[in-house]
Known about the structure:
With about 475 residues, the protein is mainly α. The chain has three domains: about 30-130, Fumarase C, Chain B, domain 1 (Orthogonal Bundle), CATH 1.10.275; about 135-300 and about 310-385, Fumarase C, Chain A, domain 2; about 390-450, Orthogonal Bundle (Ribonucleotide Reductase Protein R1, domain 1), CATH 1.10.40.30. It has 20 helices and six strands. A hairpin with a 2-residue loop joins strand 1 and strand 2. The two termini are about 60 Å apart.
Amino acid sequence: MVKSTVQDATAQDEFAATALTSLDGRYRSATRPLAERISEFALMRNRVRVEVEWFLFLAGIEAIAQLPPADAATASRLRALYESFDAGAFARIKEIERRTNHDMKAVEYFVKEQLDGTPLQQHREFVHFACTSEDINNIAYALMLRDAVREVWQPQVQAVQERLAGMAVQWRDVAMLTRTHGQAATPSTLGKEIAVFAYRLQRQLRAVAGLEYLAKINGATGTFSAHVLAYPDVDWEARSREFVESFGLVHNPLTTQIEPHDFMAEAFHVMQRVHTICTDLCVDAWLYISIGYFRQRLVAGEVGSSTMPHKVNPIDFENAEANFGLANASLQHLSTKLPVSRLQRDLSDSSTLRTIGTAIGYGSVALAALLRGLGKLELDAALIAKVLDSAWEVLGEGVQTVMRKAGGDDPYDQMKQLTRGTTLTRESYLAFIAGSDLDESEKQRLSAVTPSDYIGRASSLVDRAG
Length: 466
């Protein structure tokens, strides 16, 4: 009888044991870099950042005479609130939230508290001045998404792409039998087939690099109404742009109460495409392992089966495939739900936004697994050569094409009768060429061709993968 319980585990193990998703349980160590950038803690830190910077920004506008500029010491003290944001600060905000039942208002009150003892303590009402919650939230979420993509997810994709490009160059001249519809097909090189994936990812990485991260700060319905009523002489549209761009974000000048999240959908769409390409790669790698083109480097102590000791399973590719699927299911919902809002505002996006980390987290776990799997692959060159050398029927495509050039009588049907559903040997191939109507120079040229020679420009195409 198993007597151990969750209470018997260490605090860390207990957390993992009770986590509702594998991201915060089994994969916690892998997702920690993301958690630092896109989590409840990160959201609060970024909210504090935006509130502080908006307060300091207003203090720098000469027309707002009631709020004097912040001295260097006060500005430094306030910026330390987010630069050194810690568990204690997070706990204080959550404590306030239990009273307000409003997380954004709790952040506002927290920042106001921190003005005590500063020269600006009497001006605390300029914290969150003319803002709706979404003015703060949309900037915070844009910062989190940008940092999660650029600093965690994108480098992982880049690492996969670079690994593939290196493998393509390494194996550019390894001729192999390909399969279309699962059947033997025109040979290629292993390097060229891997280069296809490297090139696909390279294209998507260009799209990722071009993503824009939008934000706004324009009031309750995007009209600057409160701003203008309080300070009609301030160019609030220009100031809004200036403030948003100070974070390295792109200003959205025309919104309802919320930034409409179209830029997020764009990001999630390109992420889905990357994950789909990687899923395709996982499936192919799994199949190449299955037919023996690849062996997997053994890991000491690793077990492949609870009953079959010989097994070395392609678990990294299987794990990646599963997590890419989970990621894309979430990203699909995010990309179709977030841009849809009832009239000027509803709160359905609020709950949805909180799952962004989950979607990116599954993708990040999958990318890490894929990279591990690629690192374990070892080529079985002898088997690849043997398989290809036994498939002389694949030369039928090239031969009938040359016969067409020479004006032969229905060359496709001739080759079909010779090769379809049968195994063609070198001897029967040479006999066919010798008995054909081709001139002697063409016969000699085709007689010298072997399956491993019939790879066209496969090797040089590798260079396209960059």
